[in-house]
Recover the amino acids of this structure.
C-alpha cells in the first residue's frame, strides 16, 4: 500500500537496489554508472525499486524501464514517480515473458524482487530475464526462504481444502476470521514476533492476500537458490539485505555470526561456502526470504569476495563516519570500544592510533595495494619479519571487519560511483 503524496516527504531506499552496493557486488566495483546505464524493474509493483533507481540515476542520465502487467499497480507507481518529478522512466504494461519476446535493448541491472517465486515456472522467468541482460550485467532478486517461511507454508497447506469454490473476498473473510482467533502456539505468531504482527496484518487486506492467499508460490532453501541460479547459467555473487535501514541481511549467512565454539566453527569453515550458508539458514530459522545478486558464471566479481579485493580497487566508507569518529578512535586508543551504525549492527574491538591512521586511508582514491604499502612502510615498519605479508594480512582483517555490515565497499578509481548510505552513520561508543 503506497500513497503517492508521501513521495513529497520521504524516499524509500530498498537496500538491494542501492547502486553503490550493486556496483560493488554485481560489477566488482568497476562499473561506470552514467547516461549509458540502463536498469529494468521486472514486476515493479507499486514502485519502491522503480522510484529509488530512477532517483539515483536522475542526475547522471541513466534510464529505468518499469515492467508490470497490473494496471492498478502501474497507476500508483507512475503517480509516485511523477510526484518526485522523475522523467527517466519508460513504462511497459506486460509480463516478463511478453517483454522478453520483443527482444529489447539489453539492461545493465535488472531488479526482480518477490516475483519469480509466483510464476508457474520460475526457471522460465529467470531465463527470460537473462535474455535481456547485458553480457556483464547483474540481476538483483528476492525469493521466499523455505525454512524461515515454514509458518506460511504450513498455513497454506492448512487452508488449501477450504479455498476451492470461494471468491477472493470470501477467502479473505475466512482468513481474517482465522487470524482474529489464533491459538497462542500458532507458528504465524512466532514468525511475526507476537500479537502486534497479527494486528498489523488485520489492518492491511493486501498484505493478507499477498502473504497467505497468493494462488501460486514456491520457496527455496540456500541450495535451492544456487541451483536456481545455475539453471540459467548464473552465479550467486552475494546475498544482500532486503528490509531495514542498512540492508545487512548478508551477515545472517556468515557462520561466525551464529557459532562461537571454535571447534565447531573450524569444522564449518572447512565446508564449501554454500554449505556454510545452508547451515546458517537452518540454524537461525530467521530467513523468510533470500535477497541476492546474480551474475553470469564467466564474470569476474572480485569486490564481493570474502577476502581482500583486487589490489587496484579502492576501499571507501559506504557508511559515513560521524564527525568525531577519528578523534574518538584516537582518544580511546588501547581501550575496548564498540563501532556501531545506529541500526543494531555493531562490532567490539580495541583500537589504537595506528588503526585510526589506517582507516583514514580508506578514502575511495587510494588502492588496496597502495594502502598495504603505506601500512608496511609507515605503520608496521618496526616489525622484523616479512612486512609485505603482514601488511596484507592486517589490511585484509580490517577490510573484513568493516565489510561485514557493508560499512565499507570497494570500487575502481575510474568508476566514479561512490554514493554513501544516507540512512546510517558510523560512530565510536564505549561499553556500558
Amino acid at each position: 500500500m503506497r500513497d503517492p503524496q508521501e513521495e513529497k516527504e520521504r524516499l524509500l531506499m530498498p537496500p538491494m537496489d542501492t547502486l553503490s552496493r550493486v556496483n560493488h557486488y554485481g560489477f566488482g566495483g568497476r562499473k561506470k554508472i552514467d547516461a549509458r546505464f540502463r536498469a529494468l524493474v521486472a514486476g515493479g509493483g507499486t514502485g519502491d525499486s522503480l522510484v529509488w533507481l530512477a532517483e539515483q540515476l536522475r542526475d547522471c542520465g541513466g534510464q529505468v524501464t518499469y515492467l508490470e502487467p497490473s494496471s492498478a499497480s502501474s497507476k500508483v507507481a507512475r503517480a509516485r514517480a511523477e510526484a518526485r518529478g522523475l522523467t527517466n522512466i519508460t513504462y511497459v504494461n506486460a509480463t516478463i515473458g511478453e517483454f522478453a519476446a520483443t527482444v529489447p535493448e539489453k539492461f545493465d541491472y535488472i531488479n526482480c524482487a518477490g516475483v519469480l517465486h509466483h510464476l508457474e515456472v520460475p526457471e522460465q522467468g529467470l531465463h527470460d530475464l537473462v535474455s535481456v541482460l547485458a553480457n556483464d550485467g547483474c540481476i538483483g532478486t528476492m525469493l521466499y526462504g523455505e525454512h524461515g517461511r515454514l509458518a506460511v507454508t504450513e498455513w497454506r497447506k492448512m487452508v488449501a481444502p477450504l479455498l476451492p469454490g470461494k471468491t477472493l473476498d470470501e477467502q479473505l473473510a475466512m482468513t481474517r476470521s482465522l487470524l482474529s482467533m489464533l491459538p497462542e502456539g500458532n507458528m504465524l505468531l512466532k514468525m511475526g514476533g507476537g500479537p502486534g504482527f497479527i494486528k498489523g496484518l488485520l489492518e492491511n487486506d493486501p498484505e493478507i492476500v499477498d502473504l497467505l492467499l497468493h494462488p501460486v508460490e514456491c520457496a527455496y532453501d540456500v541450495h535451492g537458490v544456487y541451483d536456481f541460479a545455475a539453471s540459467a547459467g548464473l552465479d550467486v555473487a552475494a546475498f544482500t539485505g532486503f528490509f531495514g535501514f542498512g540492508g545487512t541481511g548478508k551477515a545472517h549467512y556468515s557462520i561466525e555470526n551464529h557459532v562461537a565454539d571454535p571447534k565447531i566453527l573450524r569444522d564449518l569453515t572447512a565446508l564449501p561456502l554454500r554449505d556454510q550458508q545452508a547451515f546458517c539458514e537452518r540454524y537461525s530459522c530467521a530467513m523468510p526470504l533470500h535477497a541476492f545478486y546474480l551474475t553470469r558464471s564467466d564474470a569476474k566479481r572480485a569486490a564481493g569476495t570474502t577476502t581482500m579485493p583486487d589490489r587496484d580497487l579502492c576501499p571507501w566508507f559506504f557508511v559515513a563516519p560521524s564527525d568525531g569518529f577519528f578523534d574518538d578512535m584516537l582518544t580511546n586508543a588501547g581501550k575496548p570500544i564498540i563501532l556501531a551504525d545506529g541500526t543494531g549492527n555493531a562490532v567490539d574491538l580495541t583500537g589504537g592510533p595506528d588503526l585510526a591512521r589506517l582507516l583514514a586511508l580508506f578514502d575511495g582514491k587510494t588502492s588496496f595495494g597502495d594502502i598495504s604499502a603505506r601500512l608496511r612502510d609507515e605503520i608496521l615498519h618496526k616489525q622484523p619479519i616479512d612486512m609485505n605479508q603482514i601488511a596484507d594480512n592486517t589490511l585484509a582483517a580490517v577490510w573484513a571487519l568493516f565489510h561485514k555490515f557493508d560499512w565499507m565497499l570497494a570500487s575502481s578509481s575510474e568508476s566514479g560511483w561512490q554514493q554513501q548510505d544516507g540512512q546510517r552513520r558510523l560512530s565510536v561508543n564505549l561499553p556500558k
